[in-house]
Design brief:
The chain is α/β, with parallel strands linked by helices. The protein contains three helices and five strands.
Length: 107
Amino acid sequence: MAFKALFLSYAPDADPEKHRSFIDTGKYQLWSVVVKNREEALKIARELYEKASIEVITLCPGFTHREVAEIFEALEGKVSVSVARGDGPSNQIAQAALQREYFGKQS
């Protein structure tokens, strides 16, 4: 039986039906999905829990503490939910890149 995990990330132009991948090593299955907002994240988390019995969800640093709790509660505490965060300098580098890419551009 494989260990099943989901990685969720935010991007303002995401289409979760299009921006997803799946890796299966036999012992490890990893879904990666990029979503636009909290509602899409909750939908994908529920969908993969029901269809694939995921055991772990890792969220990009853009998710808030409240969103982590909402996802955990939506899955009735049956799935581990954590956030990929770095140390101070690493967080600053990531924040600068996000600021430049997402918030520094005019639509």
